[in-house]
Amino acid sequence: MSRRPWRWLIPLAALPVLALLAYGFRVDPRAIPSPLVGRPAPGFTLTAFDGTPLGLEAQRGRVVVLNFWASWCYPACYEEAPVLERSWRAYRDRGVLVVGVDIQDTVEAARKFMRDFGLSFPNAPDPTGKVSVDYGTYGVPETFFLDRRGRIRAKHVGALTDEVVRTHVERLLAEPAS
Amino acid sequence: MIPELGYGAAIVALGLALWGAVAAALGERTGRPALLLSAQHAAVGVFVLVTACFALLTYAFLTFDFSVRYVATNTNLGTPFYYRITGVWGALEGSIILWTWMLALYTLIVILRHRESARELYPWVLTVMLGVLAFFLLVITVAAPPFARLSPVPADGRGLNPLLEDTGMITHPVALYLGFTGLTVPFAFAMAALCTGRVGDAWITMTRRWTIVAWYFLSLGLLIGGWWSYHVLGWGGYWAWDPVENAAFMPWLTATAFLHSVMIQERRRMLKLWNLALVILTFGLTLFGTFLTRSGVIASVHAFTQGTIGAFFLSFLALVMLSALGLLAWRWEALSAQGALDSVVSRESVFLLNNVMLVAAAFTVFFGTVFPLLSEALRGVKVSVGAPFFNQVNVPLFLGLIFLMGVGPLIAWRRATVDNLRRNFLGPVLTGVAAATFFFALGVRSALAVLTLALTVFVAATIALDFARATRARARLGEPLLPAMGGLLRRHNRRYGGFVVHLGILIIAVGVTGSQAWSVQTETTLDRGQSAALAGYRVRFEDLTASEESNHFKVAGTFTVSDGRVLGVLRPAKKFYPQEQSPIAYVDYRLGLREDIYLVLGDFARDGSRATVKFQVNRLVSWIWIGGLVLTAGAGLAILPETKRTA
Questions:
Q1: Do A8 and B299 touch (CB under 8 A)?
Q2: Given A10, A74, A139, which is nearest B328 (Cβ)?
Q3: pLDDT, tens digit (0-9, with 9 covering 90-100), for B487-509
Q4: Chains A–B, number of C-beta pairs less than 8 Å apart
Q5: pLDDT, tens digit, for every residue of A57-72?
Q6: Where are the domains of chain A?
Q7: What's the CA gap between B125 and B191, in Å, rounded?
Q8: Per CATH, which fold does B520-620 belong to?
Q9: Is the domain A41-174 a CATH 3.40.30.10 member?
């Protein structure tokens, strides 16, 4: 049976294809960079769930984490809600603002969501969908990181992790204010 | 409690499957029947437990158990009853349960049918089937657990993907998965043949009908998918060369090749190695398809998700391909001794050419599908490969295949003589040429359309000729005409079943040609009372109505269709689902043998005074679905048990 040793090369022929497929894990076919990164963040004025006005204009000079979410968005919004709350508590004293914009949702469901997770950062519904259109969101959750000069510096699609928030926020906090 | 039961059942099933796979192999090696019996019991246990899993998940859907994450993601309080049942397999986790359940069912049938008839191969068949089952159960318990809990429990769920709220989506996955999982059976027999060294014809004879069944369900799944795409997605087409469609199409192509090449092995004892390679390739492609759909590696309109599951499938794919091809290399000596082709002009070589073309088509589809990945890996450039590439490469191959479809069944084995060729093909070729002239005279100017139609007529003529001759031969023996025809179909069900399937494919080819060559469309904005005209039809915008449905808000336009006299009213709509960013189109259409009238509602004025409508007249599309029915009849005929030949 020692004849034709090359026949053992047949199984090896499958290896390049398998390697290519494995490479596929390293890239995200949907990762198309947002054209908004580097541009000034579109302004808005919404009424928060607690009735107070919520806008970006007054926040110039602060690093802002702007999060688009919805109560029906499982599992990602459920996974990241505690992350957002933790980040808010950790960074609020250093001048970081976490803002939630609830899109395509009912007020009751959104209130229950905020109650369940004990969210304390400012949160507003976007009843006309204008803000989510301005920011070009195409799904929830999506999060934008704004620098002190009010420009969008990063966009994150999908659930946030503590690591992601820390990386972006620390980087933006380290920059000078003007 | 219910979800924990389901999770527990899956874990026990995993244990049983693993034990059964080992026990069957051990039983074969040691010759102890008790071990084999134990493996058999394990397989029955797996089936019962997976059935329980499936039932429990369905129960969770029916009772709106939103504490189960999968339920909350794929249903909400407004989801209608039947979509709550089909929602069970509407996404990743549940579809894997359905898949596993079907595989367990096939395993059970294999046990019932083959435990006596396939003594030598049977233990290894059981090992492979249970091994594959164990993998899927591992996915259910570890990578994509359908019973995972969600906390806090939401008041209402997100709801099923609205595009899946359609009857096509109830049947499409079922048919497709019956095809995919069914292909595990020939693969298991092929592996058993390699393990035991019995690489002769036994495994082929035993799996012939299995392959036809799986092939049929795969065809059906593809056709229903096309129907769904046509009447739900609202772009007027039925096939987009989307990676996920390709994922199902590739194993179909190689399975088709296999169905044909086994005939050469049965008849001429040739192509042993090739047949084994085709089965391995086909099974590998079904896994690749699952990997593609579920890993998120390639962007697609209906890729399910991303996560660890891709790594599971890739590892399993690697394990299967490396060990199967390794076995093939190990048995190389036994496989390579085989007969040679006597002549290029023979049925063997036509079948071989058919195989080369089918595998070439599968390869080009594969290449086009993974090319974006290749490009990014090698050059760092994101590209997308669209329909033009696939059409350009595949259309010539498919035309060639249609031609061979006419030649293959009638050309002589071993060596065709000039006389044989003249006797069988002169009439059909002349008919084909006459058809080409006829269609040209009718005003068909597209060369591709003329060629396809002429080839179709040629193939149909060969089938008619063969059937007429055989009927005449029986009639000459004194049988009346109709019983003679019926007897022929029954006695040679495999041959004529194949012919009927060919007819079905021809009819589909006519539908595809017609819709590509002659469909027309326009898009206009109409004020209330205004009409648009296209291809002899007028569509008048009458009214716009809004209604609140159980789980969405619907805006429907009313359009009167006429061709001089009023044909009917169509109501295309836009559905607004709270969980979706953009509205879902609801197409309305009027199907016809010659053409379909197809309306899609675009933008509209809120006061209902004006609406934009996409108005299509799609030619001959219905023949694709009719071809599917013919194909069904043919496949049914082909899998009937063979009758004892008396004459």
A1: no
A2: A10
A3: 888 888 989 999 999 999 999 99
A4: 102
A5: 878 889 999 999 988 7
A6: 41-174
A7: 7
A8: Tick-borne Encephalitis virus Glycoprotein; domain 1 (2.60.98)
A9: yes
